[in-house]
Design goal:
The chain is built from 9 helices and 22 strands. Strand 1 and strand 2 form a beta hairpin. The strands form 4 sheets. It has a 6-stranded antiparallel sheet with strand order 3-2-1-4-5-6. A 6-stranded mixed sheet has the order 11-10-9-14-21-20, with no helix packed on it. The protein starts with a helix and ends with a strand. It is globular and about 70 Å long. The protein is α+β, with helices and mostly antiparallel strands. 43% of the residues are buried.
């Protein structure tokens, strides 16, 4: 279909690129411990981008029998009102694509009954009095093909599976929810599921005791889940689009020391076994790792073909597109690395321990596992102020209970200049790998 579509485009426009993707999704949901839904859905579609008389146009379809000529006509009509752009499509051959395992037979061959049994076992492991257990299992199998009028072609198959569980306890006016997930390209092992259960249990038990919140500028351990408010400003600031728009505080700072010199952040689409990994992006650019931050210094911004053309640079292979709309910048796998520990970490603490071994020297502070309202407001400035969704008080190196009616505030760029410690609990959370980080001087207030 890609070849037919591009052949039709060559007869009408100067250049074009296209994506075809077929996705099969299998979903299982348990609510209150009982099987609520189970089913399979499938969708396939095409996305075509053309450049005609220097203007870009886009069209898409999910028709079961797409008409290439009609799609080209719609994309050409879109180009008449499109933006001017000097877009050059890559001409790499399939032989140049990096080898990366994206498809796992165990995941693809798992039946609906297999997924239901997995969900049921997880419900049974998490069952406890006065708690409601919800579990969701979602499996995806995808085939992707991309191509352009310059002769580049690429295709790959991929699998992905997500297993999510939450335990909710309601006692009077107190609602407590503990959530965790496994996300991977291969099926979770028994050890993976057991780790998910232990993660929930290790946070549930201390959360049953409610304590008052401390106040002031305090040391705060942000778990991998709690780091969202700190990570989001960096993701926006390191996007080539925000640099072009003039809104990135990191624009013009390449090579400058802006963060703790032990910190490196990488976007790596070649990480084995991850659902976001791929040998080629959605614009025919071969995948490669991009160092966003290197030893505290601003490294590279991420670009797709359009933003790279406007910035007079090269795409980093971060083009992503759906069936409708033009391609856009998308991260793949973001990895936070600390080159040397050198912080306040207790290496004897077990890997799954709450706080990741960073609590020993905290006289009074917090562990933040979830914040409410992340993503709202002027995120790119780095400033955040959020009520806690799930947080624990730490006193004299010990977790004393869960904190309610508290809020934390700070600036991500400032807090990451001097990281107090890196936890032993590094893990994947969706498409991001990070350990817990101890950040000093976070403003904590009662609400």
């Amino acid at each position: 279909m890609i070849d037919r579509l591009l052949e039709a485009a060559r007869r009408s426009v100067a250049s074009a690129d296209a994506l075809w993707r077929r996705e099969e999704q299998t979903a299982v949901a348990f609510e209150s411990g009982r099987l609520k839904a189970a089913g399979i859905s499938e969708e396939a579609g095409l996305n075509l981008r053309v450049v005609s008389k220097g203007r870009m146009g886009v069209a898409g379809t999910t028709s079961a029998s797409p008409d290439p000529e009609a799609l080209v006509e719609r994309a050409s009509a879109s180009a008449e009102l499109g933006e001017m752009v000097e877009l050059a499509f890559p001409d790499s051959s399939p032989e140049s694509l990096p080898p990366i395992p994206t498809y796992f037979d165990r995941t693809a061959n798992a039946s609906l009954d297999d997924l239901i049994r997995m969900g049921k076992r997880l419900v049974e492991r998490l069952e406890r009095p006065d708690c409601q257990i919800n579990v969701a299992v979602e499996r995806e199998i995808a085939d992707t093909a991309v191509g352009n009028s310059a002769g580049a072609r690429g295709a790959y198959r991929s699998t992905g599976i997500a297993v999510a569980a939450d335990v909710t306890r309601i006692a009077g006016d107190d609602v407590l929810m503990i959530y965790d997930q496994y996300v991977g390209a291969d099926m979770p092992s028994e050890a993976d599921l057991e780790a998910l259960v232990r993660s929930i249990e290790s946070r549930l038990t201390p959360a049953l005791t409610i304590v008052g919140s401390p106040e002031g500028a305090l040391p705060v351990v942000f778990t991998p889940a709690g780091l969202a408010a700190v990570v989001l400003p960096l993701e926006q600031a390191l996007s080539g689009k925000t640099v072009l728009q003039g809104s990135s505080p990191l624009a013009g700072k390449v090579g400058e020391l802006m963060f703790d010199e032990r910190l490196s952040i990488i976007d790596d689409p070649l990480t084995p076994g991850r659902p976001s990994s791929r040998p080629i992006d959605d614009e025919c650019v071969p995948s490669r790792a991009t160092a966003l931050v290197e030893r505290g210094r601003v490294g590279h911004f991420v670009y797709d073909l359009e933003t790279a053309a406007r910035a007079r640079t090269q795409s980093t292979g971060n083009g992503r597109r759906g069936f409708f709309g033009k391609p856009h910048i998308g991260y793949t796998n973001i990895l936070f690395r600390m080159a040397v520990d050198g912080g306040r970490r207790d290496p004897s603490v077990p890997r799954a321990d709450l706080g990741g071994g960073l609590l020993r020297d905290i006289e009074d502070g917090l562990i933040v596992d979830d914040l409410i309202g992340v993503g709202q407001g002027n995120v790119i400035s780095g400033a955040f102020s959020h009520p806690v969704g799930l947080a624990y008080r730490v006193q004299r190196g010990e977790v004393t209970g869960r904190v309610k009616d508290a809020a934390v505030a700070g600036n991500a760029y400032d807090l990451l200049k001097k990281i107090g410690g890196c936890g032993t609990d590094g893990r994947w959370l969706g498409a991001r790998w990070s350990p817990s980080l101890l950040l000093d001087g976070v403003s904590v207030a009662r609400r």
